[in-house]
Design goal:
27% strand, PurR: transcription regulator associated with purine metabolism, Arc Repressor Mutant, subunit A, 285 residues, 12 strands, two-stranded antiparallel sheet, 32% helix, alpha/beta, 2 domains, 6-stranded mixed beta sheet
Length: 285
Amino acid sequence: MSVPKKRRSTRMIELTRAFLESPNTLFSLTEWADTYGSAKSSLSEDVAMIKTTFETQGIGTVVTFAGAQGGVMYVPSMAFSQAHSLVVSLIQKVEDPSRILPGGYVYLTDLLGDPYVLRQIGRLVAALFPAHTFDVIMTVETKGIPLAYAASYALNRRVVIARRDSQITEGSLVTINYVSGSNRHIQTMSLSRRMVPEGARVLIIDDFLRGGGTLKGMSDLLKEFRATPIGAFVLMEAESEGVRLYDDHISLLRLNMLDDTHQTLKVEAGNVFSRWKAEADYDRL
């Protein structure tokens, strides 16, 4: 039974939607040819136009893989100019003195609940950490969770969440004690044995970095799974009062100065632009 042929405009909309809804997923041109009743050469032309549009808009590219098991894949990214605009916008929002909290912290919860901000941060993480370089995204409850899922949606990678308190619904757990970098207190972190496969490559994400204790705790916890952290991303970092316990990270913002007495703060770009990758390296794919 022949498949009704769709108009090209309809087909291109559906292909674009498939790419955007399933980033880093390999689509077979042969299967698409069967689905749309179109020649693979026509579909290749469609994909080429979509790729050009994605690259022009700065939202990523489409990579073609040759061979019997080949196909096409949308790889999300973000143009440098878009990343710069995002950082400038966030600095303007965060430098509001009403955000100052006791203890040298800054209120960020509203940003972590803003879907537009989260989508943009997810795209930025996708530009910095191409999906082929890691298998799992890890965070710790609670405020790192929205950032982790923003990256998860952009990269199509699974999220695992370390808990500070054990949960019976998590099943068998691996638990470690770690030193909080900010107050040097001993705290507990747990992760289900089912969540991280042995040998997995893991991207760590958190909302705030000062002493680095939480990031180091997550890194140490991963060692119990024989997993490897490939890097860490934080929304904001601040100067540590002592020795920082974990420093292999990329930060979007940096809290440069906070004066509780005079209710003033200064925020600048983190180290994100010094670590920027304009294009992903696909040689290892």
